[in-house]
Fold:
Amino acid sequence: MLRTIERRPAIRTLHGWAISVLEEAGAIRECEEHGWMQDRADPHARERAFDIARQDPPAGVSAQAAAAAITEVLDSIGDTCPECPAK
Ligand SMILES: [Zn+2]
Structure:
């Protein structure tokens, strides 16, 4: 089930857009204490993010470029917060 992503005019970069889509889909979350993005390693959430990217890319960006930006952000985000104590 896809939700409609609100347009966020404040986001100017494709990278920032990709992060917001991944957050919206639940594929990543922000550490409440330190603000680092963490990969939740949820394949369904990732799939949702890619669906959103392909179906609703930002203005002037191709579906392919939008999906590539999602991949890039996922590659750059670890699954733990670097500042949280290891459990
Ligand atoms: Zn943290």
The chain has a mean pLDDT of 88. Helices lie at 14-25, 43-55, 63-76.
